[in-house]
Each structure stands twice: as structure tokens, then as C-alpha cells.
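Changelog note: in this version the structure field was regenerated for every chain. One regenerated record is shown below for reference.
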Amino acid sequence: MLYNITTIKKWEINKMEIAKQYHTKINTAGVASAYNISTVTRTLSQAVKDANLALHSVEVLTEIPTDNKLKAEVLDAHTYRVTWQGKLDIEVILLVKLVNGAQVLTIDDDFSNIELTNSITIEPQGLIRMVENGELYLEAEYQRGFVWSHEHKEEFLLDWIKGGVIITPYLVSYYNGDNHIYEVLDGKQRLQTVYEFLTNKIAVKGLLFEELLDYDKRKILNRRIVGLTMTQKYGDNAYERPDMKTLVNAFVNFNKGITVDEEVIAKAKELIEE
């Protein structure tokens, strides 16, 4: 079926009507730059969120030299970013346009603030070090209470040792002061089980790791774990630990339709319910 283009445009405008707009300013003089690029990221106020409004667009009203390549872009329903190159010492005026949140399909999708950013390869001995110095965080509050049985752990370890399964955890990467933390979002039980085996806390076929033959130990210590890292790059707490709502929503999204007990999912959701 062919549609009249004018009709489509009119329908889109009616459907995505601007509910509110306002001007805001950015003083570029005090903004630090990295590799000659300056960035300002802003999140809408809580009052705007409570009014169920979401970003439609952000327009730069101030005339800027083209060499600075200044641009404003909407990142999600509540966050926008302004970037430019080189040195600027002016006040930039922006026009922020908002729409009714009911028109935005991902308005509550805080998980979208976490982006897949990199990967990390962890050797078994490195896993021990990262757990014991706190760099790898396995005890997130939204996953407490979910523990494999010994039979499940032993079955998994045998498969992993023989190369039958590959461990690919999802890790939220952030900074706590000067400390770089990898919080396990998905794959906690696998990593916890490997750690317990390597540190002689659980046995496989009645044998602790320290009791294995040398060539068995070498094979196991040559296994690699490749984790996918995710980072919250925008908002007021960029590169810090995301808020609990973001983490719980991400955890729930990852575990939809798989073997995590529904009671665990329910307990995680309780952390963000009022």
C-alpha cells in the first residue's frame, strides 16, 4: 500500500507533539577537555521525570565557529550530551524540547544507560586475585540468596575442566574512588564455583584442587574466562556504580526466561520498590 507522504508527516507531528520546551545555558570556559574534545552531559531534573516528560531534541541556538564542531545529541529519554573540539570561551544557549513520556517506548529503560564497552580476559589465578582484593565483586545485594547446590557445582566444574562450557560473564565496570571494580551482573555462580574450587573450598570427584595431579592443574590453570564489560557512561554518576534501579533492571533483563529462581528475581525487585 502506498501512503501520501504529507499525510504521514502530519500523523507523525500529531503523535509526537512537543509538550514543553525551555532554554538552558552551558558555560564552555570551565569545561575540561580530553584529547582536544570537551563534553558536557546532562540529565533532566527529577521534577521533569516525575512529570512523565522525555527528551525529544536539543537544539544549539548560539552561533559557533564551524571549526569547533559543536553538536548536541540526545542519548536517551532523560540524558543529552554536548561536545565540541578546541577551545571555547562562550556561553552556549540550548533549546530543549520535551514530549509526553507515554510516547517513548524506552522511558523506563535505565539499562540502556549501561553500554557494552570492552572485554576482559581472566586467567584462573587472576580470578583468585581479583576476588580476594575486591576488584571482582561477587556479592551484589540483588543476587543474594541464589546459590547452586554442590551437585550443580560439581557438574558444571567437570564440564568446564573438560572444555565443554565457556564462561562468558557480564561485568559492570566502574570506579569507586581510585579502585576499578568489576561487578558481576551475570555469571556469578559460575565464577563463584570456579573460585571455590581453585581455593580448595569444594571438591570434584572427592578431590580438592591442591590434590590433583600436576598436569591436571596445568590444564585447569590454562583455561581462560572472557568477560564482557559494561559501563554507565552518561548521567550524574557516569563511570561510577550505577544506581540500584539500573542494576536490578539489568539483572532482571539478563535473567528473563532462564533458570534463575523466580524468588531471587522477586527479591531483587523489592530493592527498588517503594
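Spot check on this record: The CA atoms of residues 145 and 264 lie 7 Å apart. The longest helix spans residues 150-161.
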